[in-house]
Amino acid sequence: MSRRSRSGRAASEPDDGVPADGVPGAQAPADGVPDGEAVADAAHPTRRTVLKAIGIGGGTVLLAGTGVVGVRAERNGVWSVGEGAPWQLWSTWQDAPGTTALVAAGALAANPHNLQPWSWAAADDGIDLYDDPTRAMPLGDPDGRERIVGYGCALANVVLAARARGLRAQVQAWPDPAEPGHIAHIALSDGPAPDAREQRLAAAISHRHSDRGPYQDAAVDAAVLDDLVSGTADRGTEDLGAEGPGAEVVWVTEPAARATLGDLYVEATAAIIADEPVSVEAFSWFRNDRAQIERYRDGLTLDCQGMSPLMLAAAKILPAQSRTSGDAYWLKSTRQVHTATAAAYGIIRVADVGSATDRLAGGQLLQQVHLAATDAGLGLQHLNQIGERVDRDRALGATDQFSERWAQVLGIPAGQALVSFRLGHPTRTPHPSPRRTLTSIGV
Predict the structure, then answer these.
(1) Residue 421's closest CA among 360, 356, 361, 368?
(2) In the structure, what pLDDT confidence band is assigned to residue 132 with cuts at 50, 70 and 90?
(3) 212 belongs to a structural domain
(4) Which of 174, 204, 312, 404 gives 13 a disulfide partner, CB atoms 3.0 to 4.6 angstroms apart?
(5) Percent helix, strand and coil across the chain, each to the nearest 5
(6) DSSP string over 235-299
(7) What is the spatial distance between Cα 443 and Cα 437, in angstroms, rounded to a whole number?
(8) How far apart are CA 194 and CA 167, in angstroms?
(9) Distance of CA 368 to the CA centre of its chain
(10) Which residues of 391-417 are buried (b: 16+ CB within 10 A; e: fewer)?
């Protein structure tokens, strides 16, 4: 059984279909390291506890701590998770001058595989969002569903950040039909003073991260779910270029439906792993160590895989694992953590998942729900394996294995489920993903 909560209205024009922060490529601790869920969390793991966890104990601990293992730990940021230049934008975006701060807010939005597939231009009276075609996954996202949803997420951040500063940010999507890479123009003008909710959502931009860790065994109140959606576009819907029927959230909370949906996510994950070209493409965006993070400042990292602090430290010290080991870890986590502990699933429903306009509107709603969940102290993780397999099968001309079963669980027509996520009460604090510099995205 599912229940629905409506958003405001859709955008005017036209990723793991939603930003897929839960994609393959996560590194698994090497054999012999205790499972992350079987090891008690250490809030601040020490060199001794980490080295003992990976099988270096007793009299060898001090020696190892000053040798190769200690060097690797320092180089991979074991003792400085989320600290340094690649993560600085999360805490400093509001300090940027003028409209650059609004661009910085947009750059912190959810997006597929943390590709950050955009470039920006900013002036005093407006901001322009452009596609960056070099940042794409043509196999995993063959028709750009996730990319456009990610652009919607970015626009939502810009609009909310502008409202919090007393500005109206009116979006015109695809302003030049002859230039499809010009995603949107955001016209800025004086607006009303922000209300308390808008201020809270804008403040949540700094703390919104995908939480891949386990969630508590506790339901999320129906009233809380409704509140995540209420007010997302109650005022200033014209700021989003609102037209048409809009997007809505379909909530799946009933245990039997959650179990069925969870099985579909696991099945889709296994299908992605079995599709070697897709797996290889996704793994190319995984950043194995601190040096890669510093160089690229994008993609997925060990920090964001939802491990306990102790197991994260151990995974960083151990040699990097292979793509196949990473895939196996992802599948195991999907089965034993992500779907096993989801208190609810949310699916962004639109009239037509093939519509660029609907995709952009769905992304705007998705980002606002994630910010509201962050403000409410809830964990949220994007789960888009099903949509990715639907798109991949269509691109290959293969039989669609998932659309009808997905729609049946949700109680909606096929072709309306855009992207999805899981929700729950967190047990860990998620870490930020790296972000490119403002100059590298055109500002």
Answers:
(1) 368
(2) very high
(3) yes
(4) 174
(5) 45, 15, 40
(6) S-GGGGT-BSS--EEEEE-SHHHHHHHHHHHHHHHHHHHH-HHHHHHHHTTEE-SHHHHHHH--S
(7) 9
(8) 9
(9) 13
(10) bbbeeeeeeebbbebbbebbebebebb
CA atoms within 13 A on the CB side of 26: 25
By C-alpha distance, which of 7, 15, 135, 9 is closest to 418? 15
Q: Is residue 47 in some structural domain?
A: no
Q: Is residue 73 part of a domain?
A: no
Token code pair at residue 83: 């600290």
Domain that residue 227 falls in: 2-25+84-267+338-441
The two three-digit tokens of residue 102, written as one number: 């609004």
Number of helices followed by number of strands (H, E) in the chain: 16, 11
Q: What are the φ and ψ backbone dihedral angles of 350, each rounded to 5 degrees?
A: -130, 170
Q: What's the structural domain count of the chain?
A: 1
325 found inside a domain: no
Strand partners, 251: 3, 346
- HEC sequence for 171-186: EEECCCCCCCCEEEEE
Residue 24: both structure tokens together: 């393959």
Q: How many other C-beta atoms are found inside a 10 Å radius of the C-beta of residue 74?
A: 13
User: What is the pTM (predicted TM-score) of this model?
Assistant: 0.87
How many angstroms separate the CA atoms of 145 and 419, rounded? 9
Tokens of 419: 């992207």
CATH number of the domain encompassing residue 215: 3.40.109.10
Pairing of strands 286-287, 300-301: parallel
Q: For the segment 190-224, what is each residue's pLDDT rounded down to a tens digit?
A: 999 999 999 999 999 999 999 999 999 999 999 99
CA distance 89 to 91: 5
- Tokens 């949906």 — which residue? 261
Q: Angle between the 323-333 and 276-283 helix axes, to the nearest 10 degrees?
A: 100
- What pLDDT, in 10s, does the model give residues 80-120? 899 999 999 999 999 999 999 999 999 999 999 999 999 99
Q: Which helix (H) or strand (E) holds 6?
A: strand 2-6
CB atoms within 10 A of CB 328: 16
- List, as one string, the DSSP characters of 30-62: PTTSPPTTTS---SS--HHHHHHHTT--GGGHH
Interior CA angle at 350 toward 346 and 354, to 5°?
120
DSSP state of 314: H
Alpha-carbon distance 374 to 210, whole Å?
A: 10
Give the span between the Cα atoms of 342 and 84, in whole angstroms: 32
Cα distance between residue 321 and residue 377, in whole Å:
33
**Residue 94 to residue 248: CA distance in whole angstroms:** 30
